[in-house]
Amino acid sequence: MGQIEKFPQPHRPAPDAAAHKLVVIGNGMAAGRLLEEFFARNTTPARVTLFGAEPRVNYNRIMLSPVLSGEKSFNDIVIHDDAWYAAHSVDLRRGEAVVAIDRAAKYVETAGGDRVSYDKLVIATGSMPFIIPVPGANLPGVVSFRDLDDVEKMHAACDAGGHAVVIGGGLLGLEAAAGLAVKGMKVSVVHLMPHLMERQLDPSAGYLLKNAIAARGIDVFTEANTDAILGDDRVTGVKLKDGRVLPADLVVMAVGIRPNATLAKAAGLDTNRGVIVDDLMRTSDADIYAVGECVEHRGQTYGLVAPLYDMAKTLAAELAGEKPAGFVPAATSTKLKVTGIDLFSVGDFSDDDENNEVVLRDPSRGVYKRVILRDEKVVGAVLYGDTADGAWYFDLLKKGEDVSAIRDMLIFGQAYQGGSPMDPTAAVAALPDDAEICGCNGVNKGAIVKAIQSGLTTLDEVRANTKASASCGQCAGKVDLLLAATLGDTFQAARKHMCKCTDLTHEEVRGFIREKQLKSLPAVMQELGWKSSGGCPSCQPALNYYLIATWPGEYRDDYQARFINERVHANIQKDGTYSVVPRMWGGVTTPDELRVIADLADRYKLMVKVTGGQRIDLLGVKKADLPAVWAQLLNAGMVSGFAYAKGLRTVKTCVGKDWCRFGTQDSTGLGIKLEKLMCGSWTPAKVKLAVSGCPRNCAEATIKDIGVICVDSGYDIHVSGAAGLHVRATDLLGHVETEEEALEVCAAILQAYREQSAYLERVYKWVDKFGLENLRKLIFEDHDARKGLYERFMISQRAARKDPWAERAAGKDMHEFMPLAVLGPKSPVAAE
Amino acid sequence: MEEKTYWFDVGRVSAVPLRGARTVRTPSREIAVFRTASNDIFALENKCPHKGGPLSEGIVHGRKVACPLHNWIINLEDGEATGADHGCAKKFPVKIERGHIYIDMGVLAPAE
Ligand code: SRM
Ligand SMILES: Cc1cc2nc3c(=O)[nH]c(=O)nc-3n(C[C@H](O)[C@H](O)[C@H](O)COP(=O)(O)OP(=O)(O)OC[C@H]3O[C@@H](n4cnc5c(N)ncnc54)[C@H](O)[C@@H]3O)c2cc1C
Ligand code: SF4
Ligand code: FES
């Protein structure tokens, strides 16, 4: 939104005493524009009285942000100076608030008791900042961001220095935060939603914005709910719902606005959220109009000036007797006014459906562009980092043009239009030799083609030789195309893309997550150039796992990215009920456990089934009953068996040397210890173990992911078994002598698998890729490597070893288990 | 013919997790209320056109949900299965007012 021009107006003859009396309440942006538009029409002379609660002339409220940061002064943002009011014979009553409207007698009354009568009245009282009703909200030091007084209070706080907490990470909050940071405050932003400016931006742009804000030294707390504002006689801090306390000498509340309809409501006009107006800005009283943020029009309220200016134009024409067509709300675009941050959004950006969107990400430049289409028309755009084409997209949106002909090139912007479309390989082949392919490492096409011609045949080789695609990986697809174009038929793309959202393989994505320290789904998607805006059901769970495995304790599990079973910690059945499988450590149970299971089965009418994994399955539990069923199992000391998890399932055992005449070691005991060591761990695919007491192998250890066979001299460690879709006997990996070593070795193998395998690959597939011999060396010869793996496993277990059933029986995620609403046959029908 | 609408307040938008769903029980059927990453709300009968899987339990991505039973992908806007699969889950009109979700049950009236 640009600076508003101050345009000089011709001197108007003073209206005589008989002229029409027009009274305007509120001297804000809408009122100012209304008067300009009205005088420009220069028709019916009117005596205008203008009441402004603020003790000053009309100014550009939008520009308060640069005033706060010191980039502008108040004088720079004045729209109408005293001379303007004089020239138009407007009686400006600055600093005088109207407190009542008498519609019958047709006058308004001011705080000072003055009565001024009107023929026509315009209400332009704007809106009021919303103050969240938490304890301490009215302490000195808590301010809103709405007018010059607020800015002056903030400037005074900046002079004293210290900490500022801005509550609200929308447009206004971020402009306040940036301004305060420029003025030397240590600023934190507290935002309720998962990403900043969620009303204007999608998560990817929100992620980039958060980085840019953080780069200004501002701490951003998302998903943070304010609990209280602390302090006795003035603010000292802000307490969040999760218990954290942020120190604060100044608190800025910027959580939203509310139409200021108090006066209108008291006067008995129709109001809802705002003063209700029709298309001609008429209220329910024929002589009273309303304009600006105080109105509600067709159920909608407003917070940006563009539509208010349209309203002002309509109302001016109406007041001038022109019979205008009426106000029509139009799409508005948003820009954040923080120097150095380029961001643009318009229209409906919510259609995050990979078929209806075009996404371009340039991680090396921090650019993200997304254009949303419906029926081949542009309906929205989100641009970050490069907003040059914002106006062009906005224009396409407004015109509603069919863009199918230019869809392929649409995302590159206006400058790239007009070329003829080619297939992607031909397009890459047609590039000049000096065209840059890898932006991160500055590698051009010529260098890559030369390298390929010198004998390289795979992406990995090209990457190792030229560095192309070695950093963000986003150009891997293009390098692939260059390989295909250069090698022709001899090139077979052996690479398996993780999913259609990326050209990278699982292994590459894992590598980049580590190297580039990516710690959230939006971070991965932006930095690795995801082709969709939000991922798909195949990459979401995979990324969630990689993040958990790479950043144990630090990454916040994203439950919505998980398959239902892992989200609610039970197995969904074909009829929508669930099965519940508690742990039976090593396959051993007790009469007490069995009694509880029997009681539960009676009470909830459940099927009781012994599983193939040596434990008991309770089938047919309704979702809403899950927490209660778990609570009763917990009472008997039972915990989740993770039968639903890409994680540790069962450790099967045989009775072992305590009972069996052939048993060589305590196989049951070792199985229980293994299960306790590994339980709760998330893994790329499910993991099953077994411990047999002798080579007769009654626990079927040779068809498990990791199997232990006890022998007289110790323990043989096997890997890579399976008995599902593929039946595969294990391979012997090595031998250890003590139980401690057996535990450490098994945990180290599991951790290597957790760190390296692609999502959904069972252990045997990973070992096939990694090499059995390499694994043997890693675990049995490289002592430090094995210790390191074991330690990392224990660190990740510290975060993972919580019983999810206990957490949920205690109330966590209750929303998962309760319907949003239950409508009975007699539920009230909302009148409409 | 005048269309009748029956708008029911089923609760707050914020009570439905982003990229998630909650259910609404009615005497005759269960409705799944979805909230997408970009805060759009949709309501479909909670019954997959394939074999009746509970769509509310699927992974929400974009304006689609993947059925938890056999991974059919259902379009939230119209309830239609996408790709090679065919079938449709009943769709209910939704509106948001003051942070509350209203579902129009009027579409059921003729069927009942
Ligand atoms: C309950 C149980 C069958 C039973 O009644 O005994 C079972 C039930 C299911 N198995 Fe199994 N498997 C069960 C033991 C097995 C075994 C035997 C074992 O663990 O010793 C195997 C072969 C061993 C193996 O995994 O290598 C087994 C190989 C599979 C497979 C094939 C895996 C593969 O990689 O080839 C699947 C499919 C999958 O995971 O994608 C599968 C999938 C399933 C699922 C999860 C199907 C699904 O996605 O809904 C079933 C869940 C039912 C439920 O809700 O509880 N189940 N499944 C067994 C639970 C064991 C436990 O206590 O946790
Ligand atoms: C810091 C900041 C940055 C912004 N940036 C942008 C932006 O970049 N782009 C954009 O489009 N919009 C922006 N806005 C929003 C924009 O300023 C508002 O949409 C616009 O000011 C609303 O105009 P209005 O006339 O309806 O209300 P206001 O401008 O708020 O004017 C209402 C006036 O009425 C007065 N008043 C209220 N009650 C009474 C009474 N009883 N008697 C007398 N006077 C009364 C108030 O004191 C106030 O001066 C920003 C707002 C702020 C605060
Ligand atoms: S074998 Fe496993 S997956 Fe197949 S029906 Fe039985 S329990 Fe289900
Ligand atoms: S029931 Fe939904 S995909 Fe089969």
TrEMBL record, chain A:
CC cofactor note: Binds 1 [4Fe-4S] cluster per subunit. Binds 1 siroheme per subunit.
Every NADH-rubredoxin oxidoreductase C-terminal domain range: 333-400
Annotated GO MF terms: 2 iron, 2 sulfur cluster binding; 4 iron, 4 sulfur cluster binding; flavin adenine dinucleotide binding; heme binding; metal ion binding; NADP binding; nitrite reductase activity
Transmembrane segments: none
Keywords of the record: 2Fe-2S, 4Fe-4S, FAD, Flavoprotein, Heme, Iron, Iron-sulfur, Metal-binding, Nitrate assimilation, Oxidoreductase
Example of a GO biological process term: nitrate assimilation
Entry cofactors: [4Fe-4S] cluster; siroheme; FAD; [2Fe-2S] cluster
Gene3D superfamilies per the UniProt record, alphabetical: 3.30.390.30, 3.90.480.20, BFD-like [2Fe-2S]-binding domain, FAD/NAD(P)-binding domain, Sulfite Reductase Hemoprotein, domain 1
Pathway assigned to this chain's UniProt record: Nitrogen metabolism; nitrate reduction (assimilation)
CDD domains assigned to the protein according to its UniProt record, in alphabetical order: NirB_Fer2_BFD-like_1 (cd19943), NirB_Fer2_BFD-like_2 (cd19944)
UniProt record similarity statement: Belongs to the nitrite and sulfite reductase 4Fe-4S domain family.
Protein name per the record: Assimilatory nitrite reductase (NAD(P)H) large subunit
From TrEMBL, chain B:
The Rieske domain, residue ranges: 7-103
Classification lineage: Bacteria, Pseudomonadati, Pseudomonadota, Alphaproteobacteria, Hyphomicrobiales
Full protein name: Assimilatory nitrite reductase (NAD(P)H) small subunit
Signal sequence annotation: none
Source organism: Rhodoblastus acidophilus
Superkingdom of this protein's organism: Bacteria
Classification via CDD domains: Rieske_NirD_small_Bacillus
An individual GO BP term: nitrate assimilation
PROSITE patterns to which the protein is assigned, alphabetical: RIESKE
GO molecular function terms attached to this record: 2 iron, 2 sulfur cluster binding; metal ion binding; nitrite reductase [NAD(P)H] activity
InterPro entries: Rieske-like_NirD (IPR012748), Rieske_2Fe-2S (IPR017941), Rieske_2Fe-2S_sf (IPR036922)
Keyword annotations: 2Fe-2S, Iron, Iron-sulfur, Metal-binding, Nitrate assimilation, Oxidoreductase
Short name of any one Pfam family annotated for the protein: Rieske
